[in-house]
């Protein structure tokens, strides 16, 4: 006999089990650690408002490892880049004997795309997928040059 599953959300009359305060979850998350690694611990005063704001500096992407340095360190057998800046190599996300992964070595975002398994994204997404990290953890590693 199939029992109906309990529904949660608006209009259901129930709340999620073991719900905690979302502010406490944010305070304890690694995302805040990532912010602190990029910006320091103190909030900055905004030029538009009188109150302090917590936003990433506009130049945080400039502090990441350059895509050519990063990809050459993590993809064995990466080819020389084409005139458009793309290089090919084996994809580390599946058993690859061909060069199905294309990576952008000259643009700051460092895009990647595998023609076999279909994964793609930018340099941060590659690091997140490679090590199973959160966005904040990947950014911290890339900013510190640990990747």
Q: Helix count, per DSSP?
A: 5
- The name of the CATH superfamily of the domain at 65-134 reads Zinc finger, CHC2-typedomain
- Looking at the structure, what is the overall shape? globular
- CATH class of the domain at 65-134, anyone? Alpha Beta
CATH topology of the domain at 65-134: DNA Primase, Chain A
Q: What share of residues is helical?
A: 25-40%
Output the structural class: alpha+beta
Uncertain spans, ≥5 residues at pLDDT below 50? 14-19, 42-46, 49-53
Give me the Rg, rounded.
21 Å
Please identify, by name, the CATH architecture of the domain at 65-134. Alpha-Beta Complex
> How would you state the average pLDDT, rounded?
75
Strand content: 5-15%
Rounded to the nearest angstrom, the distance between the terminal CA atoms is 51 Å
Strand order of the largest sheet: 3-4-5-6
- Give the ordered list of helices and strands: HHEEHEEEEHH
Region (Disordered): 1-21
Domain Zinc finger CHC2-type: 87-143
Pfam families: Zn_ribbon_DnaG (PF01807)
Protein name: CHC2 zinc finger domain-containing protein
């Amino acid at each position: 006999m199939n029992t109906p599953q309990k529904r949660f959300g608006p209009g259901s009359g129930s709340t999620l089990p073991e719900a905690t305060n979302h502010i406490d979850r944010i305070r304890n998350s690694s995302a805040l650690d990532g912010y602190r690694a990029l910006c320091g611990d103190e909030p900055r005063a905004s030029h538009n408002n009188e109150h302090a704001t917590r936003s990433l500096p506009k130049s945080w992407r400039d502090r990441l490892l350059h895509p050519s340095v990063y990809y050459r360190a993590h993809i064995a057998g990466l080819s020389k880049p084409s005139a458009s800046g793309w290089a090919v190599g084996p994809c580390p996300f599946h058993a690859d004997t061909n060069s199905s992964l294309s990576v952008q070595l000259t643009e700051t975002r460092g895009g990647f795309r595998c023609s076999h398994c279909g994964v793609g994204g930018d340099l941060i997404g590659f690091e997140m997928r490679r090590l199973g990290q959160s966005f904040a953890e990947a950014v911290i590693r890339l900013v510190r040059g640990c990747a």
